[in-house]
Amino acid sequence: MLELRNVVKVYGKNVRAVDDVNLELPSGVTALIGHNGAGKTTLMQMIATIARPTGGQILLEGVDIVKQPDAMRARLGFLPQDFGVYPNLSALEFMQYFAALKGVRDPARIRRLLELVNLHDHADRQAAGFSGGMKRRLGIAQALLNDPDVLIVDEPTAGLDPEERLRFRHLLSEIGLRKLVLLSTHIVSDIENMAGRLAVMNQGRLVACDTPDSFVQRARSQVWSVTVPTQDYERLSAGLQVLQAQRHAEGVTLRIAHPTAPLAGALPAEPTLEEALMTQRYAVRERQDLAA
User: Fold this and answer.
1) CATH of domain 2-211
2) E-strand spans in 74-196?
3) Of the chain's two ends, which shows fewer C-beta atoms within 10 Å, N or C?
């Protein structure tokens, strides 16, 4: 169990990148969702003991890792958003180097991990010549070297092709059966069938935390579908929160986020998880506008 209590991170004079976050993270996969600048990366860096909170506590099974960072580092696997490789090392040498840093003395484990991320045929190639997706896979492998109890991955599928993303989603799901996995992503399909909990951040604050099914359930009365004539599309959609617009021979079919039927003929629609999260974001924005 990882617990965040009133965690704050302030930069400069008064830029609150993370603002009074309280969150409990049990075993399983939790996904951090939010726009760029919402505070996701800063929060993950503090949990990974790379950055120090301005205030609050981060507890791993009751141990304050702000005061005792080694308690987390010994049990942590971390893949940052910007992951680089050493230009003169092969993939195998790169893994051997990180294994030495982490105290891993099992050469067979290195080979197994390279196979797991489909790099075993490229083990002797210089990593500097890898594609972006291959470098990302190598980063995933190094994060798993020490069989971590806590795995933190920031935008893990960036640069991966669809097949690689599918493989990585399955891998994270399996790890989440027995470990704590925290990831951030902008690709909702990556978490739809993988994350047991979603934590939504906005302007440094945690605005919601629940299961994917619960987000969809709450959005069921908030998403509507209606087809409008093509020539009337711009006029009728003005001022509405349009989630999707699909043009076809009969006109334009709109999916709209709104608390009540937004247009004549609009019918309730079953929301996708992505639409549910967008509806949540619109609701947060409206509350902020009212508060201002």
Assistant:
1) 3.40.50.300
2) 76-79, 150-154, 180-184
3) C
